[in-house]
From TrEMBL:
GO terms for biological process: D-alanine transmembrane transport; L-alanine transport; L-isoleucine import across plasma membrane. It comes from the Bacteria. Belongs to the binding-protein-dependent transport system permease family. LivHM subfamily. InterPro entries: ABC_transp_permease, BCAA_transport_permease. GO terms for molecular function: L-isoleucine transmembrane transporter activity; L-leucine transmembrane transporter activity; L-phenylalanine transmembrane transporter activity; L-valine transmembrane transporter activity. CDD domains: TM_PBP1_LivH_like (cd06582). It is a multi-pass membrane protein. The chain crosses the membrane at residues 12-36, 43-60, 66-89, 101-122, 148-168, 197-220, 275-294. Keywords: Amino-acid transport, Cell inner membrane, Cell membrane, Membrane, Transmembrane, Transmembrane helix, Transport. GO terms for cellular component: plasma membrane. It is found in: Cell membrane. This is Leucine/isoleucine/valine transporter subunit membrane component of ABC superfamily.
């Protein structure tokens, strides 16, 4: 029994780390623009495909697989960051003064565009990641098994979240981001370039999400073009659970949702996982409508 509990704990922390990385993109955009970027999940899976291309093209080059995996992460983050910036310029910036419904429709259209673009570029078939990219190492403790990929995901997610938290709360640019999220007009009066801050959010969020997308591919060893909607929805739920617009809340929500799903699948049934996820969301919102770490903020009119 203890072994099962520990195994589900490891699985939950692994998937929760991925959810948290993707949820950060949702919460950063919402924090500054009060907009749900529904295309974010598809951008993350786009990063997985970019990483798969890099891994496939370098497989026969003779270089170390660890270096190849590292290069794939960097390439995926850079390409998806550029795609996120292009998305902000084309789909969101022209509608910044429009009503929120227009921005939501634009976000949904961008999601469908990216999803179908992935299908056109790589086809609708499931793509499989190479199995020999990382050493086949694993450890056992208390009856639970943890492999190298899980260790890398948990450590990588923790490091990225810690670096982002430090950047937002302990740097001048992070202060500018928090000021723009609090009041854009006041931030402009203080000399902050709000447009640049918004663009940086659409660079940082997708770049971190691309890392999460590539983690998905390495963990499950497969990707398909509609996967962005599934993981994007779970990450969005994680952001709501933690408190949308709150960076520590997105981290907490992602980890909690991953643990909850893992234990639900391990002790109940994986077929009930989605229903249990929404039951958790409804239960938390009934008690804390603003999320676990969210704050009640008066809406400006």
């Amino acid at each position: 029994m203890l072994g099962i509990v520990l195994q589900q704990l490891v699985n939950g922390l692994t998937v929760g780390g991925i959810y948290a990385l993707i949820a950060l993109g949702y919460t950063m955009v919402y924090g500054v623009l009060r907009l749900i970027n529904f295309a974010h999940g598809d951008l993350c899976i786009f990063g997985a495909y970019i990483g798969l291309v890099a891994l496939g093209s370098g497989a026969g080059s003779g270089q170390s697989h660890l270096l190849l995996v590292g290069a794939a992460f960097i390439l995926a983050a850079v390409v998806v960051a550029a795609a996120g910036l292009a998305l902000e310029f084309t789909a969101y910036r022209p509608l910044r003064k429009a009503d929120r419904l227009s921005a939501v429709v634009s976000a949904l259209g961008a999601s469908l565009f990216i999803e179908n673009g992935i299908m056109l570029l790589w086809g609708p078939q499931l793509k499989v990641f190479p199995s020999n990219l990382l050493p086949a190492m694993h450890w056992t403790f208390g009856g639970a098994r943890i492999d190298l990929v899980q260790v890398l995901i948990m450590l990588g997610s923790a490091v990225l979240m810690a670096v982002l938290y430090w950047f937002v709360h302990h740097t001048r640019y992070g202060t500018a981001m928090r000021a723009a999220a609090s009041d854009q007009d006041a931030a402009r009066l203080m000399g902050i370039n709000v447009n640049r801050v918004i663009s940086s959010v659409f660079i940082i969020g997708p770049a971190i999400g691309a890392v999460g997308g590539l983690f998905i591919g390495l963990y499950y060893r497969q990707v398909y073009f509609t996967m962005g909607w599934t993981y994007g929805l779970n990450a969005f739920i994680a952001a709501i659970i933690g408190g949308i617009g709150n960076i520590p809340g997105a981290m907490l929500g992602g980890v909690l949702l991953g643990l909850f799903n893992a234990f639900a699948a391990g002790f109940l049934s994986s077929s009930w996982q989605e229903a249990i996820t929404f039951a958790l969301l409804i239960g938390i919102l009934l008690v804390r409508p603003s999320g676990l770490l969210g704050e009640r903020v008066a809406e400006k009119v």
